[in-house]
Amino acid sequence: MLNFILSRSMQSIPVIFVVITITFFLVRFAPGGPFDDEKSVEPEVKAALEAQYRLDQPLFSQYAAYLGDLAQGDLGPSFKYPGRSVNELIATGFPVTAELGLYAILIALCIGGISGVVAALKPNTAQDYVPMSLAMLGICMPTFLLGPLLILVFGIWLEWLPVSGWGDLPGDKILPSFTLGAAYAAYVARLSRGGMLEVMSQDYIRTARAKGLPERVVVLKHGLRGGMIPVVAYLGPAFAGILSGSFVIETIFQIHGLGRFYVQAAFNRDYTMILGCTVFLATLIVVFNLLSDLLAAWMNPRLRSQLGGNQ
Amino acid sequence: MSEMLNSTSEAQGSTSSQSGRVDSINEYEKGTSLWSDAWLRLKKNPLALTGLGFLVFIALACLCTPWIAPYGYEEQNLLLGASPPSPQHWLGTDTFGRDLLTRILYGGRVSLMVGLIATSVALLIGVTWGAIAGFVGGKVDAVMMRLVDIIYALPFMIFIVLLMVVFGRNLWLLFFAIGAVEWLTMARIVRGQVQSLKEQEFVEAAISIGLSKWAIIRRHLIPNALGPVIVYTTLTIPSVMLLEAFLSFLGLGIQPPQSSWGLLISYGVESMEEYPWLLIYPGLTLTLTLFALNFLGDGLRDALDVRASKD
Amino acid sequence: MTALLEVKNLTTYFHTRNGVVKAVDDVSFTVKSGETLAIVGESGSGKSVSCYSMLGLIPSPPGRIEAGEAWFDGRDLLKASQAELRQIRGSKIAMIFQDPMTSLNPYLTVGEQLIEPLIFHHKLSRAEAAEKARSLLQEVGIRDPEKTYHAWPHEFSGGMRQRVMIAMALIAEPKLLIADEPTTALDVTIQKQILELVKEIQQHRDIGVIFISHDLAVVKDLADQVVVMKTGRVVERGDAPSIFNCPDHDYTKKLLAAIPAGSKASAHDTAQMSHPLLSVNNLVTTFADRHSGDRFKAVDDISFELQRGEILGLVGESGSGKSTLGRSVLKLAQSDSGSIVFDGEEIQDLTAKAMRPYRRRMQMIFQDPYASLNPRMTIYDTLAEPLVLHDLAKGPQLNKAVLELMDDVGLARAYVRKYPHEFSGGQRQRIAIGRAIATKPELVIADEPVSALDVTIQKQILELILHLVDKHHLSMLFISHDLAVVRVLCDRVMVMKQGRVVESGLMESVWSSPQHDYTEALLKAAP
């Protein structure tokens, strides 16, 4: 198992490196410098600023210097928030985004997983159609439509829940978490239904029934392990989706998380911030992809014993 | 069960072989091909047919917009302001007094075009890539698919945001960027299909007959791999449209004065408290279209029996 | 002796979209303890469904038990609730299934699956159950029970898994064991071991056994009573000797006649002729192991000759490399070294393109009639493809040639514009044979062409092959795992094991006095 983890981790390193490189040069090749808009800036001041941010040096030495800083965990200073480093900004924004993402993924797994399994147990009955129609709705209704609609209904018309903020008012975490989780709950429901249907038609389920096991044991012990593998494999992509989904959610619900910083940085052309956030988020996503792959492999005993050598 | 029904016809097959000496084969009864079989199955699926009908309706309406739209795209009626739906303006008007129905139709042209063009890009790259990797196999396949794996691990959503920030909001760049994300899945599907088909005995039979590579690809591989490609193309369009709407909502996609459903929703959100119809109608149009595409895709999948395409 | 299980007038229908299928139609049978009842019939005859339906194991809907009684242990199973049936399944009535590769849960260890019946039916603790499981593993002939107990199913071969399945069925000490084609997926030598094990257990534990099989030969040594089923109905029943010696019903006679027996009438010694059609020398074909990356020799230094007009049998168990040898000769698999001389010309080194003219003269018939036909081409297109490609016929001649091929392989001309999925397995194999002989080849390699077919169909196809070989003067390499089938067809035979030929010679002399131990084991194992 250790070998497998090591080799897969080694594969992730070039990916992260590619991300850093592409992002760095993309940002540098972007038309228009960060200080171009500010007409009031004197040429000398501009030169001083550019020197401070190493913009006067050749591109490759900028790149080398950036990599060097990165190796020490330093993402550099922000262009637009003078005196604040990108690290600080991420440190303020990320905990909020992480919490939001965690709730969303929990909601997705609980609601999606349970309704998918329930639907698979009685295919082509109401027990199947109702959750699956809702899942289809969840897939077809974009988060940026669902969010405002929920605000409209529960926040403005019914006045049950706060419409913005995070951790300021009781219950203000409910709507954003649910909005973000809904689409992924829908995907998880469809995947777990598909996985369970596939597994429940296998010969070994018939064997389990022929042994006289209670249906509960047949489903939970014999069915669930195989049926959930597609869901586990989907966790990586779902995580990436949830992170980028948080851009929208944080904008709609006015939450000061990393996603909102990122979008604002994009509009402000705050290049060090964009660069830093991209590198940070991309690394995070690559790591989570790796974890979900490892988990899926670990759940499959054939892979586990093959890759683990002598476990 | 079908085996049992077949075994009775087995006897007829072998005994009645001497009957009839007709040389023109056109006098014999035509068989049911898998395509006509699939069409018959699709015709029995009311959801898929409704979806197809709705799509045809929407596509026609958007195609003919310049001729059928009740008002001009920029035609303002400031006296009306934002008016709720009325006999003159079926879906109401926006804050500038522009007819919402007209704007939804014009927005649909862009949204559908993005869906179709970006999907075509994905289709073209994905099918070519996957087919070559699957057919050539060996080292070429390993390298090509390794590359897909690496690109797959890149956090693409973030990259698209970055691209739009760096190069400005360019429609063609958007097609390219979205297509560049979606081709990966298509490549994987096609490669899997080609690889499993290649190992089928009927392809070996074709080789042992002496058919050339291209003839095998044309006569044996493409017709059999077409089903899954059609299904996944249908399912790619909605995810592409969703992506475009997502970007437009963030202000990173389509740029005014051009419009798309995502942009209309984003305007709707701004004033949803006072004028909810500005959010609800564009949202409804987008959701229904995605619904229709997904139902059609699912219906095609069932009809073409894509998952169970063992023989 | 009283009956252990008495089934009366059992009727199960499947209500499908295309109408009602009478899967089991008014079936009655009785099993006594200490006795083996064999239920024999071809696929789709309802033999499995009748056993599954009384245990509540058929999918419902579409399946529905319409009528009947099944008395076991003083109660009617058909009237029992699911909960009551659950108490009986696995504890009083246990089952083993056809495919041991898919019947064990790959996500749980062998031990975990073994002890489940004890925990649920006998309420034993895990430690007690594990104790019992280990001793039972020993009883079913597994050498290292301790290690096996903690192992995963995928670490075992099919035969070992079937032993685990048997242990799992016996663990709660059932009174009745239902074995549903337990040896069909196994090699003959393994099949023999499993059959012996079932027999031993049945005598040792004095339980009743229902043995479901499509093959009368398999149940011959095992069964006390035999029930023959066809399309959901019992056509004949009786004790084993009378069924085998003086069958009443035509269908039983047909089944018995279909058991391959006897040898080729015109077998002649062709090995001495001077100009062989095909001469293979020191052929080696290797494959990379998918996991370790090491190369192993699937075909290991094989030499043989095939004379014109001869049918050469190639026998071996799964994994022996016999299919790879066939594919290597036709250059569908690339061999590493050695020579293949076809009609005096070396073809081993030819490129794919240079090989094409030879393709007309050598053809292949594949094992799986469901996979060997392009599902999107009509029969006409399939049969016409080789003719058009090699410029053998055009226009009206093409139509005529295709229709004559239909006659040749015994298919009605009216079917010519249909698609493969509209045919049964046997008919598809006829189409595949038609495609193989379309170009009037000199050499045909037949790779297990009948092993996916029911016995009665198998017989028809074998007769067709013999007829066509004679009519078109074909030379054939006939690959099979079944010595009896090979004996019906072949003049000479080669026996393969682990990539090497261990014995070869005239069919009759190998059959009557095998020289190699492995050949002897194969012969003994044949049912």
TrEMBL record, chain A:
Membrane topology field: Multi-pass membrane protein
A matching Pfam family: BPD_transp_1
Any one of the GO CC terms: plasma membrane
Transmembrane segments: 12-30, 100-121, 133-158, 231-253, 273-296
Compartment(s) of residence: Cell membrane
Principal location listed in the UniProt entry: membrane
Keywords, alphabetical: Cell membrane, Membrane, Transmembrane, Transmembrane helix, Transport
Domain ABC transmembrane type-1: 94-292
Similarity annotation: Belongs to the binding-protein-dependent transport system permease family.
PANTHER family per UniProt: DIPEPTIDE TRANSPORT SYSTEM PERMEASE PROTEIN DPPB-RELATED, DIPEPTIDE-TRANSPORT INTEGRAL MEMBRANE PROTEIN ABC TRANSPORTER DPPB-RELATED
Name this protein carries in UniProt: Peptide ABC transporter permease
Organism whose genome encodes this protein: Marinibactrum halimedae
Lineage: Bacteria, Pseudomonadati, Pseudomonadota, Gammaproteobacteria, Cellvibrionales
TrEMBL record, chain B:
Cellular component GO terms held in the UniProt record: plasma membrane
UniProt keyword annotation of Protein transport present: yes
Region Disordered: start-end pairs: 1-22
Transmembrane parts of this sequence: 47-69, 110-135, 147-166, 172-190, 229-255, 275-297
A Pfam family this chain is assigned to: BPD_transp_1
Comp. bias regions, Polar residues: 1-21
Major localisation: membrane
Alphabetically ordered keywords of this record: Cell inner membrane, Cell membrane, Membrane, Peptide transport, Protein transport, Transmembrane, Transmembrane helix, Transport
GO biological process: peptide transport; protein transport; transmembrane transport
Cellular localisation: Cell inner membrane; Cell membrane
Protein topology in the membrane: Multi-pass membrane protein
Family, similarity comment: Belongs to the binding-protein-dependent transport system permease family. OppBC subfamily.
Record protein name field: Oligopeptide transport system permease protein OppC
Gene source species: Marinibactrum halimedae
Automatic annotation (TrEMBL), chain C:
Reaction catalysed by this enzyme: a dipeptide(out) + ATP + H2O = a dipeptide(in) + ADP + phosphate + H(+)
Enzyme Commission number(s) from the entry: 7.4.2.9
Localization: Cell inner membrane
Organism domain of life: Bacteria
Signal peptide: none
Organism, scientific name: Marinibactrum halimedae
Transmembrane segments: none
UniProt cross-references to InterPro entries, sorted A to Z: AAA+_ATPase, ABC_Ni/Peptide_Import, ABC_transporter-like_ATP-bd, ABC_transporter-like_CS, Oligopep_ABC_C, P-loop_NTPase
Residue span(s) of domain ABC transporter: 5-256, 278-523
GO cellular component, one term: plasma membrane
GO biological process: peptide transport; transmembrane transport
PANTHER family, alphabetized: DIPEPTIDE TRANSPORT ATP-BINDING PROTEIN DPPD, OLIGOPEPTIDE TRANSPORT ATP-BINDING PROTEIN APPD
Protein name (Swiss-Prot/TrEMBL): ABC-type dipeptide transporter
Top EC group: translocase
A Pfam family matched in the record: oligo_HPY
An example molecular function term from Gene Ontology annotations: ATP binding
Keywords: ATP-binding, Cell membrane, Membrane, Nucleotide-binding, Transport
Family, as annotated: Belongs to the ABC transporter superfamily.
SMART domains: AAA
Gene3D superfamilies: P-loop containing nucleotide triphosphate hydrolases
